[in-house]
Amino acid sequence: MCTPPSLPAVRRTPAVLVVLLAVLLAACTSGPAPPPPPAPVPTPQPEPTQLVVGVDDLGAGFNPHLLAHLSPVTTALATLVLPSVFRVDAEGVPRLDPTIATSARVVSTDPFTVTYELNLEASWSSNAPIAAEDFVYLWERMRVEPGVADAAGYQLITEVRSRAGGKAVDVVFSQPYPAWQRLFSELLPAHILKDAPGSWVGALTDGLPVSGGPFRIASVDRARGEVVLARNALYWDTPAVLDELVLRRLDDTAMAAGLASGGVDVTLPEADPGIRTALDGVFPAPRTQLAPQPTVTQLGLRGDSGPFADPRVRQAIGALVDREAVRAAVSPEALPADAFGLAPSEPGYAATAPARPDPVAAGELLAAAGWTRAVTTGRWAVDGAPVRLVLGAAAERPEDLRVARVVAAQLDAAGIDVTVIAPPAVDLFGQQAVPATPPSTTSPSGVTTTAVPPPGAASGRTPTPATPTPTSVVAAPGGVEADLIVLPRTVGGAPGTELASDYGCPTPTAAVSDPPRSSTGFCFPALQPLLDELVSATPRPTTSAVVERVLWQQLPALPLFQPVTLVVSTAAADAVTGIGPGPFQTGPVTGAERWRAPVG
């Protein structure tokens, strides 16, 4: 019991007494404390909506402007993650992307000037604006970096000016350039890359550091063979529907099993009999569609040094290599490529290859170039030393290694020793001297490949040592020079620009005194005016045909085939994606920001 203490001797007014009594009574109250409020019941978090796409390989890296990084995965990531001022539609026509630029137009013809007004909301996922510095960075890199794709248009630019705090850009050209809408696609984040040494390659080998599109790269796990794209929460336009889009490396058997079990929704393998056989066991049968890739595989012939500096030798090798047999052995569903300009899948394509010379004509060309063939062994020599050619195929490109194996066997059967090397793609396509790395059964991307047989294996002879000789290989501090290179060339853009980029002579300028050479070092000055004409606003209708004839005569490369992707999808995936081949240059994942996760 609580006994109130005596009130102090003060003047007690009624109001004061009431307050004091309330305080004293509260002090006397006893009993247990009230129970704490119940803990909130945790709300179950829904699983992220996800769609899984099976792919053959992740590729060597993700810079879409590098020949070494060209792959279906790089195309997919560039389409969904990187900003482009123009994007091609299903007919291949460039259309302004209003999420990036509100306008782009020619404002002057003397000098030829294009003005871009950029979307004020467009920004990288780092919160940096997509701005003029990104234009400058791409322009500068495309002028000076080796092994880039389609550089000719950027080489015509003399100045890139910034206005309106970087949200307006003026681009000045040395001459009218009708294909200007093809420029400044797949912009890269200058604020991250411009000051990092080697960032043009290194920073983009295992991902893209920020996003300017509806998805961002959440993770790249090369050991597991998986790239996870997540919705870009900072994207300023309509957000992606899916939480995640997963690109997973799978072999043919795993692709078929995943489609059958529902663990894989779509697969994008290269079309070949192996995947067709694996899919025969899937029920219900998935839908299959063909999607030609925006590249052509070719056999480059080094034109600046070594035995192939003589065009007669290039012509002879072109006669000895059975291009159809290479395609049939490596990728029978690929499209035979018989031209230097357009790809077989493009409208207006026509074969320009001349009639194939017979082996007798090839022998006569080699003899005219000073080669001799031993009567007893049938092997070719120059100045009494055996000819030993070096054939380079990128270590990260399994199909290129298979091409190298077939070509090496064909030339061996014709009496020419060939040593196959497999350096990194960035080195092979961008450097004159490369490491003399032998092929491995496991590529750097983790894909098992077929080792290329040593010279002599096809005929049962004792393998010839891989030591280069002065007749075919130039020793250099960084390695050796490859006489032949299996490499891709881009197609689907502006044909004149592509021809000038692939086969033109680099022109020194005040800004770039030593421009990078082509992957094969080819330069034929008499051809350059015709290539310049194709890039200009008013080429003659006959110029393309003349260029094709000259290229077949000079043979800087031997076109082989256009790879084809097989788009495989379950009925459930079809219902939520509507997937198809897509626009030629951006491929089947175009529009993936609107895809939904399959139900069930």
Structural description of this entry:
The chain has 600 residues and is of the alpha+beta class. It has helices at residues 14-28, 72-81, 132-144, 152-155, 190-193, 252-261, 273-279, 311-320, 323-330, 359-368, 398-413, 425-430, 495-503, 528-535, 543-554, 571-577, and strands at 50-55, 86-88, 94-96, 101-109, 112-118, 157-163, 168-173, 215-221, 226-231, 244-249, 266-268, 287-292, 295-301, 335-336, 371-373, 380-382, 385-386, 388-393, 417-421, 484-490, 557-562, 564-569. The chain folds into three domains: 53-59 and 207-293 and 571-594, D-Maltodextrin-Binding Protein, domain 2 (3-Layer(aba) Sandwich), CATH 3.40.190.10; 83-187, Dipeptide-binding Protein, Domain 1 (Dipeptide-binding Protein, domain 1, Alpha-Beta Complex), CATH 3.90.76; 295-562, Dipeptide-binding Protein, domain 3, CATH 3.10.105. The protein is built from 16 helices and 22 strands. Strands 8-9-10-1-11-22-12 form a seven-stranded mixed sheet. A six-stranded mixed sheet has the order 14-21-13-20-18-19. The longest helix is centred in the C-terminal third of the chain and has 16 residues, at 398-413. The model is unreliable at 4-30 and 443-475 (pLDDT under 50).
